[in-house]
Amino acid sequence: MTAALDEESDRVALRLAIDAAGVGAFVWDLVSGRLRWDERLLELFGLDESSFGGTIEAFNACVHPDDLARVTAAAGLAIATCGDYVAEYRVVRPEGGVRWIEARGRAFAETEGGPAVRLVGAAYDTTEVHEGEARIGRVLESMSSAFYQLDAEWRFTYVNSEAERLLGAGRAHLVGRSVWEEFPAAIGSEFEVNYRSAVATGRPVSFEAYYPPPLDGWYEVRAWPSPEGLAVYFVDISDRREAQDALSRSADRLALLASVSEGLTGTLDPTEGVSLLATLLVPSLADWCLVTLVDDPHATDWRRGLTDAGWAHADPAMHETVEQYASLRLRAMTDESYLARAIRDMTTVLMESGATDKVAAVLREGAARDRLRELDPESAVAVPLRARGRTVGVVTAFRGGNRRAFTADDASLLEDIGVRAGLALDNARLYEEQRDVAEALQRSMLTDPPQTPHLEVVTRYSPASDAARIGGDWYDAFLQQNRGPGNNDVVVVVGDVVGHDVEAAAAMGQVRGLLRGIAVHSGYSPAAVLSGVDHVMESLRLETTATAVVARLEHHPRPGAAAGEEVVLRWAHAGHPPAMLVGPDGVVTRLADVEDNDLLLGLDPETKRAERAAFLEPGSTLLFYTDGLVERRGRDVGQGIKALEELLRELEPGTADLEVLCDRLLAQMIGDQPEDDVALLVVRWNPETVA
Predict the structure, then answer these.
(1) Which of the two residues, 420 and 433, has the higher pLDDT score?
(2) Inter-residue contact 461 to 495 (CB < 8 Å)
(3) Residue 489 forms beta bridges with which residues?
(4) Alpha-carbon dihedral sign for residues 191, 192, 198, 201
(5) Residues 427, 372 share a domain
(6) What's the rounded Cα separation, in Å, for the pair 26 and 327?
(7) Same structural domain for residues 115 and 219?
(8) How far, in Å, CA of 104 to CA of 501, rounded?
(9) pLDDT at 377 over 90
């Protein structure tokens, strides 16, 4: 009794479950042809016992015509193999409505190995599922983004219309095929790496990647893993990337132009400028380049005055080869060379390909051509550097075959660079000419000191190494008639006119001439000479100021029976760094302090000039200098004067040769790169020396 109740309970429970799921059952007797449906299945088809014919033909009449062949084939296969029956199809209900039905069953035989005699199964309504999928499909089809679904085997299961357009293939072709087989360039790329990472970790990924031709585009991709596989959304961002690349190229172009302008305006040395230009262009714009200076673009022989003054190569191993080529190529070029065209026609020459052969064709056979073939350029561009209506140089840039060839845009960028470089180089040329004139003018006025018994005078002039090279620094030494019984006195002067240019050098010449003329004609002492210069400068309206120190070494016979003489030193300062006196015992004394270092020359002609005097002991050394010796960045004048004192204590006692002493002072105080020009004058009185 209990077993019967349990069996009945199980049947009731199963029936309730089937009813709850909306599942209907069917039995098709293959022998009699009778097809029996339960009430639930009749309800799904919109039929009842009286309206359903109970045959397979009645069933076929309910199936949507587009699905009938597929359903019939599935049933036939199950019957022929006594296997499973699976089919999903649409049915057309009597009122015209369409429902989706999914059916599953199995064919049975009465004897093992015999033919199937019945097909038993169940069916249920999947309309809502299909309607949901249809809604999703409509959403996916209406999206502006491309979408496709991959299964666990990386096969396409769905492709929307935008994906069809971007992938260049229809869904009928793609569905069921492997993404790796259809798009082999994705293997090993960002696509495969990210797709497999998403599936392995279960986390979505987002990335940008390029796919080569035939797609030839950049894509922004988002991929979400799911139990069914991988859902992929992607959009073509090629236009955006091109815009970004264009913006980046524009920024790089502006940065390069700015660096060229900044670099070239920071130097007034043409040779340094072309060398810097070469290093600025490599490797950002070229693999290697040469910069040629043109002295006279209108010369009968276009090679005259040309100098390959700058070169650079991105590969350090090729530096020597480029240098050798630069030293050889100008002499090897024919009149048909690209360089001759760039200079003669003042136009850019662009070689987009085959540059090695094209350049070699205008080189005579020899070492230059050999070096060129070692460098092996594939593309090249030569741009004249023009300024003020003349060609001042040519920059020639080269790229190898492993780099994108030069284009018209690259040539345009080089032309922009050429405008800036040409003006900067011409400014440097003009400055160099002006500097040479000023230096020649200045040196012409720095005359040799007079030769007098027992008095040694040594001078030095060191120009600055930068743009402030030429200034108003000067030294002078001359004889002044002694009104007493002794020999002529020696006057020494060191001064500095404010400014650093040709005007400063010219003003220095005027002040120097005034001071020398007043001193020699009047015989005045140092303070009176400085006052006289003040008055004359005001009378002549010289719009300049200057510092100066004037000292007079007066020779007097020594009183008494013993032969010989003594020297009195008189001096006066006009705003100038203090002169130094090194006694025979090595003690260093400053010859000026705040109280007796008066105003600069040219400020106030009524100022009272202080003068000091002292006996000069035999073997004493005097040092006069301009502020360039003691002042520099990071060291003010006061610190520099103290350093000079210490250096004199160290060097002077053991340095008998004044020439050596001057050289050592300059080397240790200013080094190889003086920041300002320096005038230096050193005097030693040694009565023991032979005249």
Answers:
(1) 420
(2) no
(3) 480
(4) negative
(5) yes
(6) 99
(7) no
(8) 104
(9) yes
* Tally of structural domains, the chain: 4
- Asked if residue 130 has pLDDT above 80, the reply is no
Residue-wise pLDDT for 45-69, tens only, equals 999 988 998 999 999 999 999 999 9
Domain that holds residue 89: 19-130
Question: What value does the CA radius of gyration of the chain take, rounded to a whole number of Å?
Answer: 51
Of 370, 379, 265, nearest to 324 by C-alpha is: 370
Per DSSP (E only), the strands in 279-411 are 288-294, 306-313, 349-351, 379-387, 390-399
Question: Tokens representing 363?
Answer: 């080189």
Q: Indicate whether 244 belongs to any domain.
A: no
Provide the β-strand partners of residue 613: 570
Give a three-class secondary structure readout of 585-596: CCCEEECCCCCC
**Based on the number of CB atoms within 10 Å of its own CB, is 585 exposed (0-12), middle (13-18) or buried (19 or more)?**
exposed
**616-645 b/e (C-beta count within 10 Å ≥ 16 → b):** beeebbbbbbbbbbbbbeeeeeeebbeebb
Q: What is the pLDDT of residues 523-562, one digit of tens each?
A: 999 999 999 999 999 999 988 999 999 999 998 877 654 5
Which residues does residue 398 pair with via DSSP β-bridges, in sequence order? 288, 380
Residues 472 and 550 in one domain: yes
Q: What are phi and psi of 671, to 5 degrees?
A: 70, -155
Contact between 454 and 686 (Cβ < 8 Å): yes
Co-location of 28 and 47 in the same domain? yes
